[in-house]
Design brief:
The complex is a heterotetramer, with two copies of chain A (129 residues) and two copies of chain B (422 residues). Chain A has a three-stranded antiparallel sheet, covered by helices on one side. Chain A has one domain: Sufe protein. Chain: A, CATH 3.90.1010.10. With 129 residues, chain A is of the alpha+beta class. In chain A, β1 and β2 form a beta hairpin. Chain B is an alpha/beta fold and 422 residues long. Chain B folds into two domains: 137 residues, Aspartate Aminotransferase, domain 1, CATH 3.90.1150; 254 residues, Type I PLP-dependent aspartate aminotransferase-like (Major domain) (Aspartate Aminotransferase, domain 2, 3-Layer(aba) Sandwich), CATH 3.40.640.10. Chain B has a seven-stranded mixed sheet with strand order 2-8-7-6-5-3-4, sandwiched between helices. Classes of the chains: A alpha+beta (129), B alpha/beta (422). Chains A and C meet through loops of A and α4 and β9 of C. The structure holds pyridoxal-5'-phosphate (PLP) (2 copies). One pyridoxal-5'-phosphate (PLP) sits at the interface of chains B and C.
Chain lengths: 129, 422, 422, 129
């Protein structure tokens, strides 16, 4: 787990990409990790069903914030219907190394919120699907 | 420094402490990375000595049987041991056995008060006084009771160190039927000034229900002397097994309360139409109890009593003093220590954050060194929000912890600093 | 006689049965009088195989930690095993894990339904249909709910053998919101005709809550196929430890139900003023769960699954047939056997009285021979009153019982006859 | 425990003394053993605070019924205030042999009811005093 905290993770944690809030978003959602209180809010702006831009805000551990930050880069330009289909693996591909089971919820929080925004209601936990 | 030096000498070669550690099988097992287990999460749940585990095995291998109604030999022994455990637990907190109701945990005990006593006594307009420190288990049941009864909640404030502010206590007590508060904060370790609050609550006509989840394991207790009306505690936080706890209630209160759970074993006579209930404590114990765990809980409090609760308190006080001193050395590098800094006012719990390392990340890195600390909101989300903390790391101590454990924790903090320095 | 002869041959040298018996440490321990323990009280609580006891020891010696919120290694393992146990128990009854709520026992499960679903759905004038066979745990909670809600109770009658009389079922269902009934009577062994009652209850707009305390341990179960709305059962009656049980609820029902117990671990967000709750099953699991016992309960159902529930049923059917036959030989001397006499309609329970020997005296005399039977009202006082029995003796069978046990019981009856012949 | 069922116990069980009910009693009480449902009803007729006559009724095991039957013989002619003071030992002296702890409640039921009648409210269980 100590190997997890690689430079690029810490970089995303300290300099989160697409961080902030839009005045107006086409779809949005937020949730918190009931286990630890980490919070993520995601907003999407769409063009014809495609993600034109994205912002996230929140607070929490390096894992939740870095995963969310990386995800925002992943989804730019994706079709909203594809965002709704994103799987656990998309996050794991981003973060690049094994996450202990106890931290999986942290890693999946951003994805859950993103998928919730895409489907318009609270999505299942990607690690429990 | 001299005090700490003395502590180290005394404890490092303290035979008693070594003997205690040897009583806990889990502490002899290295982690998957081959590290010594440094268990600093006893506020979440304590480890169990061999005698407690053996009590479970003995019950299941020698005299497992349902109680109270069995005529045969093993049923008689099971009944006897179950009731003897009640006597032990009663004696441990200074109560009489008929004032001890078996429950699963502190949470169930508090819900029992809310559903049985609360439904009977609270009316629209009544106030319930809590404190800002309360664990969710001593907050949410009262929120729901307030919703059901029309009563409202008030909160005794705490200062920025988590110490109770009593300035307006009498004002807050005005119109109050019930005061519910934790004996010890699980997040900050603050010991509540019960000797002050209880008599003033009584003078104002309120009863006092104490959430003793963090009190009973750590402090010498005499509920009669304290004059608490209810006192709730969990076995698993005081060397006992999971699944068993106890509610102390003053006899007169219990006698007047309606049943909460109903079913087998709490009745005197049942007809299809109606039922006459047993006297307390059995009135509140429906269905087959957690026989094995109750018996093992009795063994756990016996173990604590043999250590001596004043020894337990002094041991934890000394560890806390040492930990505060060692952690203070990290303050220039961004370590923030929360809660009262005075070891005499806290009970073996220290919450902190370290620089920009989120508590969860810190806990994960410490885990790789075999160190178990808790990270998060510690079931006190409103307190965290009030204080402006999104999460804290928490180290908590118990009878088997040593100054070396704190040294290992500090080495872990060094490692975390290195990892996050990248 | 031929069927019994075959049974005896098959079972007496049945290796499987001998291996099972060897799995239960308590069965190898003689009583204080040096007798073999002949345990015929599994309807009260079952004995536990070594693997279940070992699971407890393993938890406490290797990975005892509080769950869900712990980041460190042993907390992760505890969480994982706790949730895996839920999956095992869910699979055992044909449910999905999110439909399984951990409780202490059947009694708590039924009270949970009464307090949460009941308070939400029952209004003055509504009817609740029970049967005359119900255990106090499936009767008193509904009496109290009726009192709180203004609903009233009705009783599906049973005939003099304790068999459900369905003639007026539809009339009784008229205006009913809830049918609550035992799967198997703990006093008479009668298996309820759930396949008939459940669809007709649904057609009448009622939901069906099954008290499965005596069903889950003995019968192959698929709650989805059965279409039960709730199904409550206790670990301790099915090889698991005391202090743990489960409530199955249909997902849609659980989703719509308000919390009952509240506190730590069942919340999403707590503020001083209000709380947002978790989804089921956690919404109903407040406070530290009975972690060790839940894990061991998972091991118990695995053990049963390995035996095969159809083997369990057939084994008990054969024992019951043999017992009925042997007991019948005492009838001319005043033995009265209660309940259905057909082994296909009962599940391993036989109630009886012997001449003018009161059931308690009989049980005491049998105890001197190492035989454990229950005597009394079996938590079914209204049924006893209806039938005109002041008490009965009850022998109940489980996976570790043998035809020899029944032979010993019959020898015990001979002894009792001699004692009382003086 | 099998030794317990001596001739005189079985005799009291089968031919209980002072069994039945008065039309009118000066004091009376009844109770049941919650563990097994055994029932005892005791009635006393008094003369100047002294037990002139006594009747009991009930149903239950040999131990509860024989103990109650023997007790009725014990209390005839006793002062009511002395009945209120009767101890567990009075019953044990009557039945003459050790009773297993599980059956103690059966043996004490009659005494509890008698003492309840004497003091005018439910008495404690003699074995728990
Ligand atoms: C039919 C029935 N229902 C309910 C119960 C209550 O079970 P528990 O005591 O485990 O809550 C029992 C067991 O005593 C039973 O046999
Ligand atoms: C102060 C306090 N109150 C209540 C509880 C709830 O205890 P349990 O989970 O054993 O019900 C805890 C433990 O988490 C606690 O620390």
């Amino acid at each position: 787990m100590d190997d997890f905290y690689r430079d690029y993770i810490l970089d995303h944690y300290r300099n989160p990409r697409n961080f902030g809030t839009f005045e107006r978003a086409d779809v949005e959602a937020e949730d918190l990790n009931p286990l630890c209180g980490d919070e993520i809010h995601m907003q999407l702006q769409l063009d014809d069903g495609v993600v034109r831009d994205v912002r996230f805000s929140g607070k929490g551990c390096a894992i939740s914030q870095a995963s969310a930050s990386m995800l925002t880069e992943t989804v730019k330009g994706m079709k909203l219907s594809d965002v709704a289909q994103l799987s656990k693996q998309a996050v794991l591909d981003n973060v690049g190394i094994g996450i202990s089971p106890t931290r999986m919820k942290c890693a999946m929080l951003g994805l859950r919120v993103l998928k919730s925004a895409a489907i318009g209601r609270l999505a299942a936990w990607p690690d429990e699907e | 420094m001299i005090r700490t030096g003395t502590l180290l000498e005394r404890d490092r070669d303290n035979e008693k402490l070594q003997r205690i550690i040897a009583d806990f099988p889990i502490l002899a097992r290295p982690t998957s990375r081959g590290k010594r287990l440094v268990y600093l999460d006893s506020a979440a749940t304590s480890q169990k000595p061999r005698c407690v585990i053996d009590a479970l095995v003995q019950y299941y291998e020698q005299y497992n049987a349902n109680i109270h109604r069995g005529v045969y030999e093993i049923a008689a022994r099971a009944t006897d041991e179950y009731e003897r455990a009640r006597v032990k637990v009663a004696r441990f907190v200074g109560a009489s056995p008929s004032e001890i109701v078996w429950v699963r945990n502190t949470t169930e005990a508090i819900n029992l008060i809310a559903y049985s006593w609360g439904a009977q006594h609270l009316r629209r307009g009544d106030a319930i006084l809590l404190t800002e420190l309360e664990h969710h288990s001593d907050l949410v049941p009262w929120q729901l009771l307030a919703e059901r009864s029309g009563a409202h909640l008030r909160f005794l404030p705490v200062d920025e160190r988590g110490v109770h502010v009593l300035d307006d206590l009498d004002g807050l007590l005005d119109g109050c039927k019930l005061v519910a508060l934790g004996h010890v904060s699980n997040t900050l370790g603050t010991v509540a000034p019960l000797e002050t609050i209880i008599p003033r609550a009584h003078a104002a006509g309120a009863i006092v229900a104490v959430d003793g989840a963090q009190g009973a394991p750590h402090l010498s207790l005499d509920v009669h002397a304290l004059d608490a009306d209810f006192y709730a505690f969990s076995g698993h936080k005081m060397l006992g097994p999971t699944g068993i706890g106890a509610l102390y209630g003053k006899k007169a209160l219990l006698d007047a309360m309606p049943p909460f759970f109903s079913g087998g074993d709490m009745i005197r006579r049942v007809r299809y139409e109606n039922t006459i209930f047993s006297d307390p404590p059995r009135r509140f114990e429906a269905g087959t109890g957690n026989i094995a765990d109750a018996i093992a809980f009795g063994v756990a409090v016996e173990y604590l009593q043999n250590l001596g609760m004043s020894w337990v308190r002094e041991h934890e006080r000394a560890l806390t003093a040492y930990a505060l001193e060692r952690l203070a050395a990290f303050e220039p590098r961004g370590l923030a220590i929360y809660g009262p800094r005075d070891p005499d006012r806290i009970s073996g719990v220290i919450s902190f954050n370290f620089a920009d390392i989120h508590a969860h990340d810190l806990a994960s890195i410490l885990d790789t060194e075999g160190i178990c600390v808790r990270a998060g909101h510690h079931c006190t989300m409103p307190l965290m929000a009030k204080m402006g903390w999104s999460a804290t790391a928490r180290a908590s101590f118990y009878v088997y912890n040593t100054p070396e454990d704190i040294d290992v924790l500090c080495a872990g903090l060094e490692k975390a600093a290195t990892v996050f320095a990248r």
